Amino acid sequence: MMNDPLVLRASETMGCRVLAEPDLDEAGRIRLAYLKAYGRSPSEKETTRASAYLRRFEADLDANKVAPEARLGRAWQALCQAIFASSEFLYLD
Q1: Integer CA distances (angstroms), 57 to 38, 52, 53, 70, 86, in order
Q2: Which long-range contacts (CB under 8 A, 24 or more apart) does 86-89 make?
Q3: Are 34 and 40 within 8 A, CB to CB?
Q4: What is the reported pTM?
Q5: Is the separation of the CB atoms in 2 and 81 below 8 Å?
Q6: How far is the C-alpha of 78 from the C-alpha of 26, rounded, in Å?
Q7: Which of 36, 47, 52, 63 is deepest in the core (most CB within 10 A)?
Q8: What is the distance between the alpha carbons of residues 36 and 24, in angstroms, rounded to a whole number?
């Protein structure tokens, strides 16, 4: 599931949509991603963890010499991909 081409395309699309919201800061974008995927807002802990994930991912991209203009989009794609691969997204209670 996590590396399926459909999931990769969907996570890229969702990452682009979230980044396209000019009036939102990082926490607002995380909130929007959670609302779109789970139909709920993230907890404070989830927001903190997602923000830390984005920073670590961008730092890894920087260390791997990925162009600066591509880092943010790729980090958000990765976060959205992780959201899609979560059990909360995959299973209905």
Answers
A1: 22, 9, 6, 12, 18
A2: 88/38, 89/37, 89/38
A3: yes
A4: 0.88
A5: yes
A6: 15
A7: 47
A8: 15
